[in-house]
Amino acid sequence: MTPLAAIRAQIKVILSSVTGIGIVHDYQRFAVDWQKMLDLFKDDDRINTCMFRREKMIKRRIILGNPSSQPHRIHIFKIICIRGLNDAQATAVSFDDDLAAVEEAFEGYKTLNGTCETINPGFGPTEGEEGVQISLVEERMFGNVLCHYAELRLSVQERNAR
């Protein structure tokens, strides 16, 4: 298994452990048929899903007396969470709570169960940030359904061969 595949697998395991987060996909899902598309995202007969994909990769080499050193790679994953909105059930509150639970879930896995160096990289565009970042929360139409929509970011520094 490649380092990226191992990282992706652990992200899915950790996301799937969050109660209420819904169906987790380790890639962005699409379907031509609208009903099949909805079926990919329905949990308990409502849209409730989380999917993620690598958004970008940053690489740098730290030489420090070793010109053959391996490059350090940071993978930035975008995590998209979508849930059907129901005002009477105050789903905005439970959606926010579940986003916080995602952030907290990763706090206990700073090396994604040993598959990466850290989820708190010391370089790159997310330097100084820790763990999962919630970058956008809003309402969007998903087909003909008004939904809560959130984008989260997770930066993962690959473990280097030593």
Q: Your description of this structure?
A:
The chain is an alpha+beta fold. Helix content is 24%, strand content 38%. Strands 1, 2, 3, 4, 5, 6 and 7 form a seven-stranded mixed sheet that branches. The protein is elongated.
Shape: elongated
Task: Please give the CATH class.
Answer: Alpha Beta
Mean pLDDT, nearest integer? 91
Number of domains: 1
Helix content: 10-25%
Give the full name of the CATH homologous superfamily.
Answer: Phage tail protein-like
Instruction: For the record, give the distance between the C-alpha atoms at the N and C termini, rounded to a whole number.
Output: 18 Å
Structural class by sheet pairing and helices: alpha+beta
The assigned CATH architecture is: 2-Layer Sandwich
